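Homework help thread (please don't just give me the answer)

Our assignment gives two proteins as sequence + structure token strings and asks us to describe the second one. The first is just a warm-up. Here they are:
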Amino acid sequence: MATTFGPEALAACAAELVAGGSLEMSPGHPEDAATIAALLPAGTPVFVNHLPGRALAASLPTLQAIRAAGLEPVPHLAARRVQGRTQLVEFLQQAVAGAGVRKALLIGGDDATSVGPYGDALTLLRDAVLAESGLRELALPGYPEGHPRIAAERLERALDDKVQLAQQQGLGASVVTQFSFAPARVVEYCGELARRWPAVPVVVGMAGPTSAAALLKFAQRCGVSTSLRALGAQGMGAVKLFMHTDPGDQLSAVAQYRLRHDDCNVVGVHLFSFGSAARAARWMNDVITARGATLNRP
């Protein structure tokens, strides 16, 4: 029989996961950094998107604003959107020197074709430019529901290769998962990662508070299809009920998983903010301070 934890233990674990977590923001709103910093613990990692059609350098003012606000700037590096090695080197030099960047999230990018020499994240990592730039850590994406265009076995092998290569280059490696609407699958995936890479920290991605319409749009774009189809089979009422713009259900499931597994390597949660970073930060603040966060009880 599964161990049952009381509301106090669950709330404390949830607050710890959020306090040790992160969120993302768009590169065009450096002014949001001060608002976020007023709500979250000093040093909270804030990831900055690498959007299609935008140069890496466009994120520098936001990365600098994040650092100035006392937070940890973490740029996304989308391999297929990097125009060339020279551009990447220049960006990393400026990010490390000017914004104190120590960590980056390395993704392939969902573009159909590459604009430069890197066809995927592993190709960019093999270049060794990241380790040479002064970065100390890499966050790598994990996909609890798989990827719409990459077979499961290939996805698993690619993550293993990236973790091994990062470690060989002296870079710390962690995994940030894609968000999902299937808490049971998320904790199952975390268990799989714990068995494969017990020493690699895992941060569980969750959809931050937003409207149901915005959440559905981003879910379809991000390939979160399995749980959407399962909800859809129950009718749109079930979809709207589950996607109620509050990630408390997801957080509760992860907190219970962490409490029940001594070998758990989940260290925090990551909120995808969908352009509403301040709103996500306020929700995180509520959980940390136990104001207004509603969690399912076991």
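The one we have to describe:
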Amino acid sequence: MSENQTPVVFTGRAREYFGIWIVNLLLSIITLGIYSAWAKVRRKKYFYNNTLVDGVGFDYHANPINILKGRIIAFVLFVIYSMVSGINPAFGLLMAFILFLAVPWIVLRGMMFNARNSSYRGLRFDFNGKYDEAIKVFIGYTLLTIVTLGFAIPFVTQRTKKFVLSGHKFGMSNFKMEALVRDFYKIYLVIFIIPALLGIVAAIATPAYQQYKIKMSHVSAYQTRQLPRASTHIKTDMDAGGFIKVANVTATEPATTDADMSEEEYLKNLNPEELAEYNRLIKAAEANDSETGMTTSKKYQQADAFAGLIGKWGVVAAIFAGFIGILLYLAVIFSFAAYMKSRIHNLVFNNTSLEHISFFSDQRMRDLVLLYITNTIALVCTLGLATPWVQVRMARYTANHLALIGETDWDKFVGDKKGVTRALGEEIADMFDVDISFG
């Protein structure tokens, strides 16, 4: 096989697409959703036309009227389902079960409609997946996932990707996806292992942290003159230098304050037992200072400095800390999503071929994490107005990390005329959030 690579290029621009997007949004709102069928065609045509292979873009040919008819039927079915559920929940559950059984047909018709209305160099795509295979994939494997408590997810993912990709055709030529089940398990194993390791670390660290807090509370109690006295005849205190002062303060002796009596005078008044207790406390203080790695006075200085910082920069520090916390949270969540998307996308396309042409994908997790975080920040800060920019960025990244390997002799592909497939399946799928894509 030739090693010639033909890159996929996306030429769309956010400023250009924003005009299409904002018009689609406003007209869809004004027409109470009727224009959404035309909006869908305009959006798909823009992204298809700006995705180029060998300098030629794809095209989308769906008739908005057909999409609108499908959406009306889907909307009517949804209203009926809502009304029946409100009148009798049992009938609602029955309709939901019927819808579940209809999922294979919905998905099949949706992919057929989408493929047959897509073309490249005037040659149409097609989808020839079988209904019985769709039942096995979208019903049988769903039940298998539930029965195995999720352990069959990698297997189900592989079978679903293979059904979708291998069912597509370009002209008379079939796509073929040959990624193995074990390769999917390797990807999912990382997702399973990381939370387990985090749980183990938390299980070990939490008791250790509790013990540390208990130990530090004793140290703190000592440093703040809260240590219990050895007897009623012992008075302990700590001067500014960190020394413990012990004195006999029985009720029979005249009251003497710390300020009136020096450390040397305290020591002269101690009997042998009290002097031994004094020495024990001194050794305990030195041991605590040695373990914590800093002197008492240094701890007090750090505490005062921190308090001063909070007093001066409290609001700014709190906002900055909150922002950093949100970024870290997003990074963790998006890391899992980016890992899954990049690894599975690469695995699927690197094991897919079309006649003499194969594919090469090299998406990276760190790139996607950065994209996800910046896209989310942009959407939040602009209240959604950055949607065109986000969509263009994602389309450009996907295209720029995908290439065709082999001689792209498009004359070798032969077309086949197919009847127009109704849009009902795809629109019902949209209405009930059943969506199957290329990964």
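TA reply:
I won't write it for you, but here's a hint about the kind of observation we're looking for: The first helix runs from residue 14 to 30.
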